[in-house]
Amino acid sequence: MTNTLDTASSAPGTTVTQERKIVTAIPGPKSQELHARRVAVVPPGVSSTLPVYIERAHGPILVDVDGNQFIDLGAGIGVTTVGHTRSSVVEAAAGQMNDFLHTLFTITPYEEYVRVAELLAEHTPGDHPKRTVLVNSGAEAVENGVKIARRYTGRRAVAVLDHAYHGRTNLTMAMNYKAAPYATGFGPFAGDVYHAPSSYPYHDGLSGQEAAARTIAYLEKRIGAVDLACLVVEPIQGEGGFMVPADGYLPALQEWCTANGVVFIADEIQSGMARTGAYWASEHFGLVPDLILSAKGIAGGLPLAGVTGRAEIMDSALPGGLGGTFGGNPVSAAAAVAVFEAIERDNLLDEGKRIEKKLKSRLTALQEKYDIIGDVRGIGAMVAIELVQPGTGSTTKEPNPAAVTALANHAAQNGVLLLTAGTYGSVLRFLPSLALSDELLDDALDVLAEGFASL
Ligand code: PLZ
Fold first, then answer.
1. What is the rounded distance in angstroms from the CA atom of residue 334 to the CA atom of residue 321?
2. What is the pLDDT of residues 254-279, one digit of tens each?
3. Is the pLDDT of residue 9 over 50?
4. I need a surface site. Which of 179, 230, 236, 268 has the fewest CB within 10 A?
5. Signed CA dihedral, 162, 163, 166, 167: sign only
6. pLDDT tens digit string along 365-400?
7. What per-residue confidence (pLDDT) applies to 14?
8. Residue 306 Cα, ligand 1 centroid: separation in angstroms?
9. Strands 228-233 and 157-161: what pairing?
10. Which domain holds residue 191?
């Protein structure tokens, strides 16, 4: 079976059959050989969820060096949203590779960068004039968002929310909630970063208004609006465990920011680029962020990230104040243009809605059967289950990371790559590519159901 959800004419990766297939122990002998070479030269600080070494991939299928095929429910943590090696994206990148690979946009510019900026202006919330700076990674987008907000406001402080994840650079390490493994031993950290309470409805039981009042009280008392440059929020938290904030929470925060001259920054690095059945999760909450951060899925698998925002804010940096050698690389930018085109041409926002429907219906059915599934949540192709200790689902909601690990292992052994998440390691997240058919998704969920049965 070929991948019918990749509708472009030619298909790189058509040699990848769209099926789950396990032909060796996991990891197989060739993967084990590669792993032995790897541990001799790569430090353990760079870990791997599942050490099967990948040879090819197409759509939602990963093929390892031993010939095992996995249904990929992680998409490289939300990067190959349009599917692995999507034909039109590969063609666009290959075409650009034949033209030129690099000039450095801040030396001699090129159209692809400008086109990505136009597309981001067109497809982000709000019809105000916008500008975009392109960089290499999500963390770099966060760094630049904060830089620009400080420059524009002339204020020092940065606020983030509990359970946030923003990256691995020095500033972003200070912005993450979890110390281990991201920050442990890596200090000293950037100052003037404040962690405000968030909205985590399953645990705090607060309404959006109540949670927002709590967050705002913290910002006012602990920092003071006059010193606050920006509030950085993930509209749906990624690494934290796909928490969908209570109704009204995010709009109340944005309103407070606007009233107090605080730049409202949406980190949509994981939740954006057609991930949730909309271009941006912000749209589900009626937000119009001052700055919106994109990365991961924007270039279909190539490194690219951006800060898109209100012209008057973005224009505050001095000429030469923004940039970087590889920022907006022409091959990545050409791929990003093809990603936007694929989203439009192949109606990929609808695929996100389709995947949500299937995931939610099957996961809530499992929840009725297994009381350790405390919560099923998320939007679009960004859905998670939070696992709790037996009998605590309606009381203390004790995290159950052991069950999460067991289920992820069971899935891997049976050809399904499933990612974990959550501050307490108690969340299984479903972050598949939009090229995942209902048939393959059902197959993957059958494997998960077997996993629950065998717990
Ligand atoms: N903001 C919301 O999800 C990256 C981390 C993978 P980079 N999340 C995946 C890992 O273990 O390093 C992320 C994110 C949000 C920022 C980032 C950072 O993006 O491209 O990894 O720098």
1. 25
2. 999 999 999 999 999 999 999 999 99
3. no
4. 179
5. positive
6. 999 999 999 999 999 999 999 999 999 999 999 999
7. 64
8. 13
9. parallel
10. 100-345
CB-based contact 90:302 (threshold 8 Å) = no
Residue 233 Cα, ligand 1 centroid: separation in angstroms? 13
Mutate which of 160, 165, 304 to test ligand 1's pocket (most atoms within 8 Å of Cβ)? 165
Average pLDDT, the chain: 97
Which residue minimizes the CA distance to atom 16 of ligand 1? 166
130-135 and 305-310 beta bridge pairing: antiparallel
| Strand 305-310, strand 373-379: pairing | unpaired
The encoded tokens of residue 440 equal: 């393959």
More confident residue, 45 or 4: 45
Question: Residue type for 394, please?
Answer: S
Question: What span, in angstroms and rounded, lies between the C-alpha atoms of 374 and 205?
Answer: 14
* Closest Cα to atom 3 of ligand 1: 270
CA of 390 to the centre of ligand 1 (A): 32
Per DSSP, the three-state class of 55 is strand
Residues in the chain: 455
- Ligand 1 centroid–CA 318 distance in Å is 28
CA distances from 331 to 12, 96, 120, 334 (A): 17, 6, 17, 5
In a domain, 242, yes or no: yes
What does the pLDDT read at residue 15? Answer: 84
Q: Report the predicted TM-score, pTM, of the whole model to 2 decimal places.
A: 0.97
What is the pLDDT at residue 324?
Answer: 97
Same domain flag for 263 and 354? no
Angle at 405 between CA 400 and CA 409, to 5 degrees: 150
For the Cβ of 269 lying below 6 angstroms from any atom of ligand 1, the answer is yes
CATH of the domain at 450: 3.90.1150.10
Does 429 lie in the same domain as 281?
no
> In angstroms, rounded to a whole number, what is the distance separating the alpha carbons of residues 323 and 285?
31
Residue type, 248: G
C-beta of residue 175 within 8 angstroms of C-beta of residue 142: yes
Q: Do 47 and 39 contact (CB within 8 A), yes or no?
A: no
For ligand 1, whether the C-beta of 139 sits within 6 Å is yes
Q: Which of 270, 273, 282 to mutate to test the pocket of ligand 1 (most atoms within 8 A of CB)?
A: 270
The structural domain count of the chain equals 2
